[in-house]
Write a structure and sequence with these properties.
With 193 residues, the protein is of the alpha/beta class. The protein has one domain: Rossmann fold (3-Layer(aba) Sandwich), CATH 3.40.50. Helices cover 50% and strands 11% of the residues. It has seven helices and five strands. It has a five-stranded parallel sheet with strand order 2-3-1-4-5, sandwiched between helices. Helix 6 links the parallel strand 4 and strand 5. InterPro entries: NAD_biosynth-regulator, NadR/Ttd14_AAA_dom, P-loop_NTPase. This is AAA family ATPase. It holds the Pfam family AAA_28.
Length: 193
C-alpha cells in the first residue's frame, strides 16, 4: 500500500521548485526543462483539483491529499525514466505536507508525512512572492502570501533540505537556477567519473 508513495531509485539529479501558489514554479520548471533538454514533472494536484472543481465545485479537502501524493509520485517516477541528466519537479510531497499543515490546522496524514520526509532531492528552489499573484479557480490566498512563504521556508529549514531562494524577474531566476544546477551537475560528474 505505502510503496506507491515512495520514489524509485535513480541516478539523475532531482530539482524541486518549492513555494506558495502563484510564485512562478511552473514557468521556471518549463524553462529549466527546455534549457537542459529534459522533462519536467507537473504538479499533479492542479489537474486533480481542477477536475474536482469542474465536476463538484469543491476545493481541496483533507481526503484529497493522499490521492494527490500518490499521483504526484507516480508521475515523478514515470518521468524520471525519461529524463536526461536532470529531472525538474514542479512540486514534491513536502510541499503537499506544508499545504496540509497550513490549511488543516497543523495536521498531516502520517503516510504523507513519512514519504514527504523520506523522498529525497538534490536541490530545492524556494520561489519568493515578488511576482504578481495570478487568480485562477484553485488559488485562494492572495492576502496570505507572506505567511505561506514562511511556512515553506520553515519546512526546508526544519528538515534540513538544501535550497536556494529565487527572487527577481523570470530571467534572473532562470540564470540563478541554471548556475546552481550546472554546479550540481559538475559535482555529480566528478563522483560518477
Amino acid at each position: 500500500m505505502e510503496e506507491k508513495f515512495r520514489q524509485q531509485a535513480s541516478n539523475i539529479v532531482k530539482i524541486v521548485l518549492f513555494g506558495p501558489e502563484s510564485t512562478g514554479k511552473t514557468t521556471l520548471s518549463q524553462q529549466l526543462a527546455r534549457h537542459y533538454n529534459t522533462v519536467w514533472v507537473p504538479e499533479y494536484a492542479r489537474e486533480y483539483l481542477q477536475n474536482k472543481w469542474n465536476n463538484e465545485r469543491k476545493t481541496c479537502e483533507p481526503e484529497d491529499l493522499l490521492p494527490i501524493a500518490e499521483g504526484q509520485i507516480k508521475l515523478e517516477n514515470d518521468l524520471a525514466t525519461k529524463a536526461s541528466q536532470v529531472l525538474i519537479c514542479d512540486t514534491d510531497l513536502l510541499e503537499t505536507k506544508v499545504y496540509s499543515e497550513a490549511y488543516y490546522i497543523g495536521s498531516c496524514d502520517p503516510v504523507l508525512e513519512k514519504y514527504a520526509l523520506e523522498n529525497t532531492y538534490d536541490l530545492y528552489f524556494l520561489t519568493y512572492i515578488d511576482v504578481p499573484w495570478v487568480e485562477d479557480d484553485l488559488r485562494d490566498k492572495p492576502n496570505e502570501r507572506k505567511q505561506m512563504f514562511e511556512h515553506f521556508r520553515n519546512a526546508l529549514e526544519k528538515y534540513d533540505r538544501p535550497y536556494i531562494l529565487l527572487k527577481g524577474d523570470k530571467k534572473t531566476r532562470l540564470e540563478t537556477a541554471v548556475k546552481a544546477i550546472d554546479k550540481l551537475l559538475k559535482k555529480y560528474d566528478k563522483h560518477a567519473g
